[in-house]
Specification:
This is Membrane protein. The chain is an all-alpha fold and about 325 residues long. It has eleven helices and two strands; from the N terminus they run E-H-H-E-H-H-H-H-H-H-H-H-H. The relative contact order is 0.09.
């Protein structure tokens, strides 16, 4: 049976001693996770970091109480049993992975952690027939449910309206600097810079297949170039623009998307049908860029239209004129 479970024990096969040892190790891990979140958030979200430090201290107090109970019942030696040793036991996501997804994702993960732990203890309490163990596990479930109330209390004490507003502004700024700004630059480059070569090829050859090949080469090549350029020219440490890998990914992918948008219609064999659809896609792309500039970069809509739509139209016209010459 152990081989079928990858060497892990089934929860139903654990003794009361092992269940309590598992609870102790789980509380230790959760305290470390909260402390890690606090350390990661300290620079940009100091109020939330204070909340997570308080939650880490609360988990550590619960661990201490569990350890005292274990010593009274089973003696000083606590067997080593962790989450990964038990089949079907809830897992914790790596903190570095959750951290990459932003402050709201971290808060949601903390709520999930508390819910997972409470559900585990409730199910464990229902399984046991021993009165003392049932009471112990029931108490643990109530404590885990109470952790959310503790978190709410800490949040109320440390996250006033000013702190919440400041953290929301910081999160928005990081989103714009890390994802929106490089992605927008890539979309603009991919949508506008590839217009001339794609439509010059289209009107010079009037061949959908040839135009498609040129469009794919231009879009993918531009995406690779923009991605590497964005990632290499700024490591984000001084500028505060975030991970170069994220920025390079956003810029490279959106550059390729911008170019592919008006290249893929040439999968259609009929040249004029493909060209009409490609021209319509160009209009949609340029208006989308103008909207993003207005929505996230706070650029006035008329200025965005002049910068993007008029400029894109000129590049489009240049491509048509060169190809038709």
């Amino acid at each position: 049976m152990l081989s079928l479970l990858g060497g892990r024990r089934r929860f139903d096969d654990l003794s009361e001693r092992e269940i309590l040892a598992l609870a102790i190790s789980s509380e230790e891990d959760d305290a470390r996770i909260y402390a890690d979140y606090a350390a990661r958030l300290d620079a940009d979200y100091p109020a939330s970091a204070t909340v997570f430090r308080g939650m880490a201290e609360e988990e550590d107090r619960h661990r201490s109480r569990l350890l005292d109970l274990f010593v009274r019942r089973f003696g000083p030696h606590v067997p080593l049993i962790r989450r990964e040793h038990v089949a079907g036991y809830y897992a914790r996501r790596p903190t570095w992975l959750v951290d990459q997804l932003g402050i709201e994702r971290i808060r949601a993960e903390a709520e999930r952690m508390e819910e997972d732990a409470a559900r585990f203890y409730e199910l464990a309490a229902k399984r046991t027939s021993d009165a003392d163990t049932r009471k112990l596990l029931g108490d643990l479930a109530q404590q885990e449910r109470g952790h959310q109330a503790t978190a709410d209390h800490l949040a109320d004490a440390n996250l006033g309206s000013a702190a919440r507003t400041a953290e929301a502004d910081t999160a928005r700024r990081k989103l714009i600097l890390t994802w929106v700004q490089p992605g927008l630059a890539g979309l603009m480059d991919g949508s506008v810079s590839t217009l001339a070569p794609i439509f010059a090829t289209a009107f010079a050859t009037q061949n959908s297949h040839t135009t498609l090949l040129v469009g794919l080469a231009a879009a993918i090549g531009a995406g690779i170039s923009m991605g590497f350029t964005e990632a290499a020219h700024d490591d984000g440490v001084i500028s505060g623009r975030g991970s170069p890998l994220k920025r390079g990914l956003a810029s490279g992918v959106m550059t390729a998307v911008g170019g592919l948008g008006h290249a893929l219609p040439y999968l259609i064999g009929d040249f004029w049908t493909a060209t009409a659809i490609a021209a319509l896609v160009v209009v949609v792309e340029l208006w989308a860029i103008a909207w993003i500039q207005n929505r996230f970069m706070e650029t006035p809509m008329m200025r965005a239209i002049v910068q993007v739509v008029v400029g894109g139209a000129l590049v489009f016209a240049a491509g048509v004129l060169i190809g038709g010459a």
